Amino acid sequence: MRAFSYEKPASPAEAATAASRNPEAKFIAGGTNLLDLMKLEIEAPTHLIDVNGLGLDTIEPTQEGGLRIGALVRNTTLAADQRVRRDYAVLSRALLSGASGQLRNRATTAGNLLQRTRCPYFYDTAQPCNKRQPGSGCSALGGFSRQLGVVGTSDACIATHPSDMAVAMRVLDATVETVKPDASTRTIPLGDLHRLPGDSPHLETVLEKGELITAVTLPKPAGGTQIYRKVRDRASYAFALISVAAIVQRDGSGRVAIGGVAPKPWRVEKAEAELPRGAKAAASALFADARPTHENAFKLPLVERTLDAVLAQARS
Amino acid sequence: MVAAGACAALPAMPGAARAQPVSRGEPVTASVSMSVNGENRTLQLDTRTTLLDALREHLHLTGTKKGCDHGQCGACTVIVDGQRINSCLTLAIMNQGVQVTTIEGLGTVDDLHPMQEAFVKHDGFQCGYCTPGQICSSVAVLDEIKAGIPSHVTADLTAPMAVSEAEIRERLSGNICRCGAYSNIVAAVSDVAGRQG
Amino acid sequence: MKFDKPAADNPIDRLQVVGKPLDRIDGPRKVTGTARYAYEQHDVVPGQAYGYVLGAGIAKGRIGAMDVEPARRAPGVIAVVTAKEAGALKKGKRNTARLLAGPEVEHYHQAVALVVAESFEQARAAASLIKVEYAAAEGAFDLKAAMNEAKKPEGDDPSLDDTKVGDFAGAFAAAPVKLDETYTTPDESHAMMEPHATLAAWEGERLTLWTSNQMVDWGVTDMATTLGIPKENIRIVSPFIGGGFGGKLFLRSDVLLAALGARAARRPVKVTLQRPLMINNTTHRPATVQRIRIGTTGEGKITAIAHESWSGDLPGGGPEVAVQQTRLLYAGANRMTAMRLAELDLPEGNAMRAPGEAPGLMALEMAMDEMAEKLGMDPIAFRLLNDTQVDPEKPERPFSMRRLDECFRVGSERFGWSRRSARPGQQRDGNWLVGIGVAAAFRNNLVMKSGARVSLDAQGIVTVETDMTDIGTGSYTIIGQTAAEMLGVGIDKVVVKLGDSAFPVSAGSGGQWGGNSSTAGVYAACVKLREAVAQKLGINSTEAIFANGEVKAGNRSLPLASAAEAGPLTGEDTIEYGDLDKTHQQSTFGAHFVEVAVDAATAETRIRRMLAVCAAGRILNPKTARSQVIGAMTMGAGAALMEELAVDKRRGFFVNHDLAGYEVPVHADIPHQEVVFLDETDPMSSPMKAKGVGELGICGVGAAVANAIYNATGVRVRDYPITLDKLLTRMPDAA
């Protein structure tokens, strides 16, 4: 870990100013991913801006009947919020399936969205990785790729986004609020936050330099039966091999987003149109452009079978 | 620089940093004060020092263990302001003014905490290295259930919480025990939960 | 004391303290965080500096150039050690690869440098400034590709030989029912919770190492060889060990580098291997490919059995001895075993909990299940039909004690085996397919020379000193129980001091020999102390009865403590073994029962119930012995369901080299586990009449899980771990 200076501003505006002053700075919130990466020098900021004191840790109702979740709301707090449990159960479930109790107590809403891939080659600094070191190559292609992406990937990178929470937020049509260093704010649909890797996998989001996430907003409750089904080898404390977030209405229509398969929560409009026809039709639309490796091709039938079970559960 | 990190990307803009500049990797130090097991402690620390290393290497409270240093094992679990966390993934300087309870603060050899006593009685450990983390986690888990925080195995998110073996197993899954004392740990935690009523 | 005749009645048989389920005497320290491990010895020596290890970034080749100057100049840095600075180093007898690379690199993450600095943070940061240029060489990393080149293992060890009895080929060809299948087990990691760690301090020529090591004397010996200094100049202190499982049997790079770092820095240095380095830097259980052939009569009598195993290791290394149990577990007149060793340039393979038997039984006991099905027999009945009371290779040589049949009978009753459906895929519970499986547990009982010193003071306190280690096994407690029993005192009057090379050399912790052998050594020392006490009190030692803090002979009764009034009395001795383990095959036995549920949609397997019934001689402490067994069952469950070091066959390393990537079971994976010990004593094993139990629990349990999965789904997976991707497309159609 490189030496760094540290400051803890008191407002989002101060944080943005601090960021603009220091080009090699990083914001730190829960720290559960950033410090992990700093210890390995995958991240090497020379200045840290601690955003834990910005007052971004509340969950408020919106005028539209939704919820505005502060960027610093901890995963535990969000999962346990009575309104979330009642009206956005898929989000509670997704959060509770992730990481461990200890990590959820510190991990934040915005940090969870911006956590980086868990691809083992990204984590090993002796190995080529286009995401970590642009242009060095992708070791995962042709290597150990069982956990990695099957769709939305590229010849430069097959990493997945590891979040469970983001998959649920995607199916809930969440939007992200940000503030830029010039104090301007904007709203980004969650589906637009993460980029696909293309030939520049080191660029992971559409956020501009110094742009700080301040909140995630959920629209008014979607109703329906909300299910988050995470599939993994180990029964707990493991990243998803795949996950299915679904909101299914009585008439069989609904929404679905898939985790563990792509560089972002994977949601395809056409697949949702196919949903009433069943899992097979929906899965084939979800994976129309899939390019799995030999080691992770099982994720395709796995998603289909899991989705089928989720739809059956929703019907019962 | 890459647009990623804990919270957001940062600009490559010119301008002087307000905080102390970093040259040639010279360590930056800062003062941090916290209450550890009820005692106020102030330390002058390299900003890079984790809470875990502050406890182990600076306060010599070595009951809190370093098993992986990356949030993958739970051996470093301590209770900060009533919540269990992995002390390896938080900087000491981020914990200004907090109250930390470590295994040493729960009980002593001559005056064991009920959870410590139950671990001995049920042989809820073997090598002992994950044990302080398991115990701190267990104490916090029972509080979490009391506080109505749900878990992955909670059947009904809107119903009142209850202690069960399945709940204990799921909630303690962030504490790995390679010796495989799980079955006995669950017995110990259930025993304490039963006595707490 | 020479143990060369079966044990007669002795003071241990009184069972006043031994055999009781006492709480661990080191328990209160462990649960309060006051048991101090290797990296936590802040007060033993002042001025401790921090070392941080840099591992090689290639699997095989040479270091072309290494620039350590930026690290040397970095803030807080005191010294940088590389092979160049270290000077001539030899290699310890028990190491395959060198512990410090340069210029050759033998495996990925082999240590190339140590940076010593004032703080951990400074050492870590400086280590990243070292620039190494490598000339990478081609290596062999794929066991299956290297199998054809594999050779018969070299060396004098007869256990490595091919074995042959009768005419296997003829009998197999003639057998009306036969099986010929190949099974694979992956590379696995010990993944003990405490990373390897050492604090080293030089005082002139003398070196003290506070470390985490299972075998203190091996460590001293190999360290002396490596540094080329006399053994007497080295002291190892290893009082608490945060898990080992074989991974801490040997001298590892933390020890050597701490010593070299301390010499270079001229002050004490402590080093711990960072978790992401550990898996490739240290040893692992090697992968195997195993071919098993079994031929039987139509009634299920085995007439031919063959077990061949292929594994790989670095040049100079050894094979995973996966065929051992097949020589002894089942009867059959015609038999053969063979092991072949391929040269691989992966990190060093070596012992992990039940080396040989653990992966060997994962294959053999799955094959037995498959064979029973072919025969239309109950898997337990098939095993019992082929049970034997003698060494099948040498029928004149009996087992000292073998109650495998009773393990199965007791277990099947308790577990409800009769409710099993012989046809797989029949039991459904909601979305789950449910099945049960069984397997035999078998592990040889090894006996090892072991010494101890026991003294008595005027307060009646008995102190035991031995270099034996407690790696979670309960050594502190059973040694305390042994001394208490022998001297007729309560365990509260016994102080146990372990893990210091200043104490008599013990068996150490490995191969499940530690419990029986080290307590037998304490027994021997206690016999000496009893003689000294009797002599002091003027009592005939053969008549003396030590009980309740007193020594009685005839109608005389004197307080034990009075013998030490004039000064402490000490007894020191070593247990040594004759040929009882040659005349009699000594082994431990068990039966594992497992119930699994497999998700009908996702093929995720979750274990619902586990039972082990064990016959392992006298159980010295049922509480700690039970813990050993459930812990081993847990590790076996991991091996069956999730543990696998992923080999990058191009780059030659284990890719998932941390605890997020290498998944071991967590709480949610493990149900309540039940263990039953058959009541037995084995007088052939030692005066304790005990045998090992620490590894028996992992033997066979993986196959029991696999067989339960087959029973639940009808899908047979012969490549461990049995992950959902291997089941998924072959799952029965959802009802």
Task: Give structural notes.
The complex is a heterotrimer of chains A (316), B (197) and C (735). Chain A is α+β, with helices and mostly antiparallel strands and 316 residues long. Chain A has helices at 12-21, 34-39, 75-80, 82-87, 89-96, 101-106, 109-114, 120-123, 165-171, 190-193, 269-274, 279-286, 299-315, and strands at residues 5-7, 25-28, 47-50, 59-61, 67-70, 175-179, 185-189, 212-218, 225-231, 242-248, 254-259. Chain A has a five-stranded antiparallel beta sheet. Chain A has a three-stranded parallel beta sheet with strand order 1-3-2, covered by helices on one side. In chain A, strands 9-10-11 form a three-stranded antiparallel beta sheet, with helices on both faces. In chain A, helix 5 packs antiparallel against helix 9 (165-171). The mean pLDDT of chain A is 97. Chain B is α+β, with helices and mostly antiparallel strands and 197 residues long. Chain B has two domains: 29-105, Ubiquitin-like (UB roll) (Roll), CATH 3.10.20.30; 114-196, [2Fe-2S]-binding domain (DNA polymerase, domain 1). A five-stranded mixed beta sheet of chain B has the order 2-1-5-3-4, sandwiched between helices. In chain B, a hairpin with a 2-residue loop joins strand 1 and strand 2 (39-46). Chain C has 18 helices and 32 strands. In chain C, a hairpin with a 2-residue loop joins strand 10 (197-203) and strand 11 (206-211). The interface between A and B is large, with 77 and 66 residues.
